[in-house]
Amino acid sequence: MFDIKKKFPDGFLWGGATAANQLEGAWDKGGKGPSIADTLPGGKERFAIANSQKFNWKLDSKEYTYPNHRGIDHYYRFKEDIKLFAEMGFKCYRFSIAWSRIFPQGDEEIPNEAGLRFYDRLIDECLKYDIEPVITISHYELPLNLAKSYGGWKNRDLIKFYERFAHVVLERYHSKVRYWMTFNEINSAFHFPVMSQGLVPSSGANDFTNIVQSWHNQFVASALAVKIGHELDEHLQIGCMILYATSYAYDANPINQYANLKQMQDFNFFCADVQVRGKYPQTTARMLKEHDVDPTALEITDKDLELIAQNTVDYIGFSYYMSRVTDVTSEHGEGVSGNLIGGVANPFLKSSDWGWQIDPKGLQIALNELYDRYQKPLFIVENGLGAKDIVEKDGAIHDDYRIGYLKQHIEAMRGAIADGVDLMGYTPWGCIDLVSASTGEMSKRYGFIYVDLDDEGKGTLDRSRKDSFYWYKKVIESNGEEL
């Protein structure tokens, strides 16, 4: 009864993860409309540009490049890519459905059949190789019209548009797709609401009231998706998805300890609390006060709260790339960047080429923290190392650094399972090289599969296997025993 589990469970979902806007390309083909991701320029200043007061979602091809428009041509090469995933032995593949491929403007009543047929083919190609599709309904791909004409997720009209979108895809694919997630990294809006909420400074991103209202509207929309899915098939597994960053206080100073506790409550847990527990946490009033949000300014109805309470998620999907350190009492050297978050540098950790601190033990801590709090199955749906890969003269790509990173994190997962955590699966991010969300670069590579494309958009787009490809294949074959 109290035996320690030392192995990954049978049926563990090994696979990989992508997002439509970062790899599909064909941004204006097959009836697809533009998304907010299609307006984000390439380059290291991408987020700074999107966070500026002058940014208004306008395309300016004279000044900027837009690598998402082409992606890695997955729209036309998905069969080749899925075959490579199958060669690695994937048990599942996490991807997203581009909302504007199904509803080009977002507010139509009739979906775009050509877009649906594309995902018919993509899903069937996965099933051909016994790969379970894991679908994110909304992954930073809000139709551009909903951001420009409606002001993004702060507008309650988006609830009905999302409900229509979710109903169409769930009804179409529920007999083929068991695993779903409603919103990608929903809590990322705490620091950067551009991608998850379609809010920029010119449309109210700097007013935290708009962020909270947007969250509430998304919580209602998520609950509606859960309701629709469970009515179609009670066995569907519909999860939330958050960005999780294990957080440490810099020292034993109680002030830093409390600041770190609040950071965890507000960033790591707030959105999950609502979607998993079905109610706003007790810390909400304090958080709103600290961010100058007047609760009476929020449009939250009793019907909304009842819907949220009755339609909680089945599991928790989350991304984990790094940990963070909280220090509010003094300056301790340089800060560090990360996955939409920053903090004080941790002297005990090394960093990636892009400055993200590498903390495998932090993943084991994250798994324990989440499972202790919620007692729901967990699914690591993003994790990986963005790095610069070198192609040797013979075409080989020796990415031992990536193998080392993933190996350490898988060991941490096994440790968490021994701790008693219920872990469903693992889908490393960018299993095939794709356009970076944070910088629009191709040189920031995560994949097991190399794509011949550079930051200027030059290259053959040919696919090739890195050393990590063969390593991960053995990991899957051995169900995590051979690392």
From TrEMBL:
- Organism, as annotated: Liquorilactobacillus mali KCTC 3596 = DSM 20444
Please give one Pfam family short name: Glyco_hydro_1
What the record says about family reads: Belongs to the glycosyl hydrolase 1 family.
- Do you know which Gene3D superfamilies this protein is assigned to? Glycosidases
Among PROSITE patterns, the record links this protein to: GLYCOSYL_HYDROL_F1_1, GLYCOSYL_HYDROL_F1_2
What is the name of this protein? 6-phospho-beta-glucosidase
Taxonomically, what lineage is the organism? Bacteria, Bacillati, Bacillota, Bacilli, Lactobacillales
Q: Which residues form the active site?
A: E382
* PANTHER family per the UniProt record, alphabetical: 6-PHOSPHO-BETA-GLUCOSIDASE ASCB-RELATED (PTHR10353:SF122), GLYCOSYL HYDROLASE (PTHR10353)
- Which example biological process does GO assign this protein? carbohydrate catabolic process
Q: Which UniProt keywords apply?
A: Glycosidase, Hydrolase
Q: Which domain of life is it from?
A: Bacteria
- One GO term describing the cellular component: cytosol
Q: Under the GO molecular function aspect, what terms does this record hold?
A: beta-glucosidase activity
Q: Does the keyword Transmembrane apply?
A: no
Q: Enumerate the InterPro entries for this protein.
A: GH (IPR017853), GH_1_N_CS (IPR033132), Glyco_hydro_1 (IPR001360), Glyco_hydro_1_AS (IPR018120)
Claim: Hydrolase is one of the keywords in the record: yes
